[in-house]
């Protein structure tokens, strides 16, 4: 991946200050291009092994100067607009696209990207991001300029950028508030350009608009599963492009297993092998937890060119072990409860020379959608007979008693609606769970939601371990396709995630494809790890009792929930384990880290 940053400002003293702060290369990246005039700065950093941009940079004052962080597929129509475009790569390809399409360029590019363009004569700055996210652009506006970077720590180096923490961001994260401003970061003075948006900066005025809107896809019912299979195969194979050593994070669930099988078959045609990293319980484990070994081994038995590497950390390995590295790399907390496992995956990948990693994250939001709402959608469409048939099939498959099914699928939506009308806390998310599946998918796809995870994951693996992590199941065309799928394709004969299961017939082992259980989380021992770390966590909470972060995080509730954690299976985990202990603990440790580094609480 590339890193880029820039400044639009006429103050030469400030230009020199920023240049001095950025001249030392961040981490393992090297400055590969710089552009400096009396009104703007542009910098780009790349890893030494990164392919160049395909040509020398122009310094024509009448031409756009462009930097980009991108992983592009064939841009729509670009080969017709400029015949040589397909032979270009990286920034050079973006430059050709921008020359052809200007501010509509993001709509034409296929893949993940962030780009910045500066026009010296016009003194105009353009910033743009792809529709899904993963390549962030952070920026800070001040009295006579705007400074931006794809790497948040680059902005935190600048003395004129205030480092006051954003208490609203802390509180909305703790409350899991879906309505927080999508441009918010953990710093008051720094904003995030949301995915699917562009920013124009002219004459000290900034205008932001959204360019991405989900496009309806025509669905022909007889071939919906064939279409999904083709889109998923394309998405996986495209995201393997440029990878010399490719790995997959294999959990044993539907999503990661499908990616592993598609990737392994593609590599087998080239005589290559796929690495797989899997988090499992240590050998000889005697606790109540279970892991996914049996399903992972089913994938390995089918695809003989996968080399597995098990991550079986001892229970004493703290779930907060990866947090400090995350703070250093990102400048803010990551949206994950398994940074300790991801850190080990990153270290393994670096040991084996991995440069591209495939992840199944986000699949169950779209491609293998596993929410509720199908029965309500059928009822709203007046399809009473089909609704009754689905109820009967679910009961026959042992998915619950009649009372439980009625309570979950009929009374539950009604109760959520009543709660929402009364403005009760959490009611919006509760009501969302029973909306039409299409509405649920659109909600998740909105800027500022799933991208919060992607932004952190992409940067954590790139900055920390030199690996490009990619998310095939969040491909824009896959996401748009799933938002057009009729509800009854998502569940059939009582089978949840039905369309994905049918699409993966002949690709996934049936023991994985047809499994109805969700399986343990990414770290099956996460409750056991918290219990093993309880004494140290209690000591830390006692020593820091007067610390400012406990004004935001309920310390007494943290200690109560911590005391209640017991090793157990997924069904026995308390919500407080994640919402209070893990998320509260991560935010508290981030604030502690920020204060130690000179930041101030709000």
Question: Within the largest sheet, what's the order of strands?
Answer: 2-3-1-8-7-9
> Which structural category fits the helices and strands?
alpha+beta
In whole angstroms, the N-to-C terminal distance is 33 Å
Unreliable runs: 51-56
Mean pLDDT: 87
Globally, the shape reads: globular
Question: How many β-strands, per DSSP?
Answer: 16
> What percent of residues are in strands?
15-25%
Treating each run of at least 4 consecutive H or I residues as one helix, how many helices?
A: 25
Question: Helix proportion of residues, in percent?
Answer: 40-55%
Radius of gyration computed on alpha carbons: 25 Å
Describe how the helices and strands are arranged.
Layout: E1 2-9, H1 12-22, E2 30-36, E3 40-46, E4 65-72, H2 78-81, H3 90-101, H4 105-108, E5 111-119, E6 124-129, E7 138-142, E8 145-149, H5 152-156, H6 167-175, E9 191-192, E10 197-202, E11 205-210, H7 224-238, E12 246-249, H8 254-269, E13 274-279, H9 293-302, E14 306-311, H10 323-330, H11 339-351, E15 356-358, H12 374-380, H13 384-396, H14 402-421, H15 427-432, H16 437-445, H17 450-465, E16 468-470, H18 476-482, H19 487-490, H20 498-503, H21 510-513, H22 526-532, H23 534-543, H24 555-564, H25 575-596
Helix pairs in contact: 6-25, 7-8, 7-18, 10-17, 12-13, 23-24, 24-25
